[in-house]
Amino acid sequence: MELIAAILSGLLILSGWLLSKWNHEALSIAFYLAAFIIGGYAKAKEGIEETIKNKDLNVELLMFFAAIGSAIIGYWTEGAMLIFIFALSGALETYTTNKSQKEISSLLGMQPETAIRVVNGYEEIVHVSVLQVGDMILVKPGERVPADGKINKGTTTIDESTISGESIPVTKGVGAEVFAGTINVNGSMTVEVTKPASETVFQKIIQLVQSAQSEKSPSQLFIERFEGTYVKVVLLLVVLMMFIPHFVFGWSWNTTFYRAMILLVVASPCALVASIMPATLSAISNGARKGILFKGGVHIESLSHVQAIAFDKTGTLTTGKPEVTDVIVRTDINEQELLHLVASIENQSNHPLATAIVRFWKSHNHAMLLHPEQMEDVPGWGIKARLNNEEWLIGKKDFVGKSEALDFENGISRKLEMDGKTVVYVKDSVGIAAVISLQDMVRNETKNALKELRNEGIRTIMLTGDSENTAKNIASQSNIDEYIAECLPETKVSSLKKVKERYGNVAMVGDGVNDAPALATANVGIAMGEGSDVAMETADVVLMKNDLSRIAEAIRLSRKMNRIIKQNIIFSIAVIIILIASNFFEFLNLPLGVVGHEGSTILVILNSLRCLSGGKK
């Protein structure tokens, strides 16, 4: 509607100008007056309402006064042009805001409203709001997943670009997690609902971005506080301009009033006020499209000032799941046969190391696992079992016999532990049968992600509760700059404070409940989207996909936004100064003042739209 009103106002101005050329002055003024009302109504109403609400003057009222003043001294065309360009720039700013919020609108459109619930073999279509945890829903090929859950039946390919920003579909089978709003590409599947509709990851994305777009950055808040004072100063200068030049420089009353009206136009901070918010909204929307969620303008603004980033290790730099790296068996034993027996015993335990050994066996073999005749889980130490009429001990060196364990294969376990690996010992009736080493593996993307951060001039530090040897090994694999080992949750905060003392502005990246205090302590907290809800709630930025390379992308986007904002502010202030000086020296007439002032506002808004594109330049 704003754009339609601006265009209609422009057509009326053109008609009024043509009528004035044909000497129909009265009719021309009528058309100009209509242009004033149609083009200026929305902005005048906004200005008056804001003044009453905030009890402070604003830019809209300045423009309104300038247009009325121009008409009073007979410059109907110039006053109408001012209204037209001001209305046009307002429409453009609204367009920018709407475009920045387009991601939210498109996300809302992607949220399915209904689901096919399966009850006792019967299918029924229900609204997603009535789905409860434990319900079974059928998702057909080409449909969007209506709720968060895990696949109970079927194998399919899922397009998760709405959640992670990753365009390549992912193949998923029974037990895999699926998220509301993602697309089931090519297979039918039955999904067990794990979260109600109001708590899905998809809803959290929408809530986070909506909240971010309503939160203003420190720069924006400063400009808004500055605006009221600035408007009062301008009005005071305009009043002085109406009188002082007449007595000091001998200008005519008509000239002084005319120059005062030009001052009222060119000194208005429209471009300055529009320098920040459109750029911030555009950057937030750009990040949301790529799976980077900023919880407000203050956080995206702060990210560009970060000098160092501290990383939690488990689940952030690493996969968070230990994997078998070495298997050393006694010379008289067949490795595959031994692994088969060990995996069969470990399959009875839910310990992460046991699960890793079973997973390792299944990834290399398809033989059915055996069932131990007897089994005893010794918490904190290992497993004692009987299989194939033989006693087996699997666990720590103190559990199987420390001296014997350390002497096995010329003390191979010492070297493995020095490399930061966890060693599991296997003992049969003869003695130590094997050692199996495991390690939490560094993510595939970690090395390149940290390299990108180094290229951006960011120092990287790892905080981990692991031993010195493990921390050193992970640091060398990931190319991290520094590490602090043996950090408990409470000491992680104090360690982070020391990092802040050294580097100033520091970000913290984590994914677990124990990372929440450190995330809150950092200047900017960054949570991995697949991490705990507590970490996501505490953090200032959320990476919806556990892709560390998004951090460098977020920093580039933040720096681009701040660079554009600086460009906007410097440009708008420079234009105001030049126009004011030109007016004082009588080089500037009202039409050029209107074009220069409103043109700068339009250019600032267009420059802000660059934040909707990539984050490099």
Q: Output the structural class.
A: alpha+beta
Strand content: 15-25%
Please give the number of β-strands.
Answer: 22
Which quaternary structure do these chains form?
single chain
Instruction: Summarize the biggest pleated sheet.
Output: 7 strands, mixed
Total domains, how many? 3
The Cα radius of gyration reads: 34 Å
Low-confidence stretches: none
Strand order of the largest sheet: 10-22-21-20-11-18-19
Fraction in helix: 40-55%
How does the overall form come out from the CA principal axes? elongated
Give the termini distance in whole angstroms. Answer: 33 Å
Tally of helical runs: 25
- Mean model confidence by pLDDT: 82
In short:
The protein has 617 residues and is of the alpha+beta class. Helix content is 54%, strand content 18%. It has three domains: 222 residues, no CATH class; 133 residues, Rossmann fold; 123 residues, Calcium-transporting ATPase, cytoplasmic domain N.
Helix-strand blueprint:
Elements: H1 2-21, H2 25-54, H3 59-72, H4 76-100, H5 102-110, E1 114-119, E2 122-127, E3 136-139, E4 149-153, E5 156-159, H6 161-164, E6 170-172, E7 177-178, E8 183-184, E9 189-193, H7 201-214, H8 218-248, H9 253-266, H10 270-273, H11 277-289, E10 292-294, H12 297-303, E11 308-312, H13 313-317, E12 318-329, H14 335-346, H15 352-364, E13 374-378, E14 382-387, E15 390-395, H16 397-400, H17 402-407, H18 412-418, E16 422-427, E17 432-442, H19 446-455, E18 459-463, H20 468-478, E19 482-484, H21 489-503, E20 506-510, H22 516-521, E21 524-528, H23 533-538, E22 541-543, H24 549-584, H25 590-608
Parallel strand pairs: 11-18, 11-20, 18-19, 20-21, 21-22
Antiparallel strand pairs: 1-2, 1-3, 3-9, 4-7, 4-9, 5-6, 5-8, 10-22, 12-17, 13-14, 14-15, 15-16, 16-17
Helix pairs in contact: 1-2, 1-4, 2-3, 2-4, 3-4, 3-9, 4-11, 4-25, 7-11, 8-9, 9-24, 9-25, 11-24, 12-24, 14-15, 19-24, 24-25
